[in-house]
């Protein structure tokens, strides 16, 4: 049960729904308990095995749910319209970090699912490349290339925001435009 919080965070990120994430974690533990005799404790321990079960369950459910029709309730439509109307445009005094969080979430959500999963396991759960490869049952080179591509896409998507906010400067150099991180001179 020591990995419960970690599994929930990963499931919550994958499903974007609390109750679905809870169900996914519960099913993961149920399947792990059913087949614990077949588990071979390797150098990485049980964490990658649990993540693999979670990932496989999610993929199976996602494929199944993708084929199902979706019904929208009137209450959901009205609440979505109301929340859109409640937002006040142009919060000029908004905190820079709040805007950055929104931009980052938007950028991460726009990544393909396989990139999101690798990025989450590496950046948030701090798994090694080998642990991620074991968890997702992919070669370590695939993990490395997915992580590289995810970082590149995030960098490209967040570049303009960083320049607008003064986090990055664009300086002219001999070989084109070069970005440098602005260092705070005083706090």
Descriptive notes:
- This protein has 187 residues and is mainly α.
- The chain has two domains: 1-68, Rna Polymerase Sigma Factor, Chain: A (Orthogonal Bundle); 97-182, Winged helix-like DNA-binding domain superfamily/Winged helix DNA-binding domain (Arc Repressor Mutant, subunit A), CATH 1.10.10.
- It is 65% helix and 6% strand.
- The protein has eight helices and two strands; from the N terminus they run H-H-H-H-H-H-H-H-E-E.
- It has helices at 4-15, 18-34, 47-66, 74-86, 96-110, 113-124, 129-136, 140-164; strands spanning 168-173, 176-181.
- It has a two-stranded antiparallel ribbon with strand order 1-2.
- A hairpin with a 2-residue loop joins strand 1 and strand 2 (176-181).
- The longest helix is centred in the last third of the chain and has 25 residues, at 140-164.
- The N and C termini lie far apart (43 Å).
């Amino acid at each position: 049960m020591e990995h419960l919080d970690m599994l929930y965070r990963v499931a919550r990120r994958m499903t974007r729904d609390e109750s679905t994430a809870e169900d996914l974690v519960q099913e993961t533990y149920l399947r792990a308990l059913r087949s614990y005799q077949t588990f071979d404790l390797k150098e990485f321990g049980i964490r990658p095995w649990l993540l693999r079960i979670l990932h496989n369950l999610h993929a199976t459910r996602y494929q199944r749910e993708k084929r199902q029709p979706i019904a929208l309730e009137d209450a959901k439509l009205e609440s979505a319209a109301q929340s859109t109307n409640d937002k006040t445009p142009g919060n000029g005094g908004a905190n820079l970090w709040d805007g950055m969080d929104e931009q980052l979430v938007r950028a991460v959500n726009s990544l393909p699912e396989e990139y999101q999963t690798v990025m989450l396991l590496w950046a948030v759960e701090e798994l090694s490349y080998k642990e991620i490869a074991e968890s997702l049952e992919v070669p370590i080179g695939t993990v490395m290339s997915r992580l590289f591509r995810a970082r590149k896409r995030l960098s490209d998507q967040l570049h303009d925001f960083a320049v607008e906010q003064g986090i990055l400067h664009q300086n002219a150099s001999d070989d084109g435009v070069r970005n440098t991180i602005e260092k705070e001179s005083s706090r």
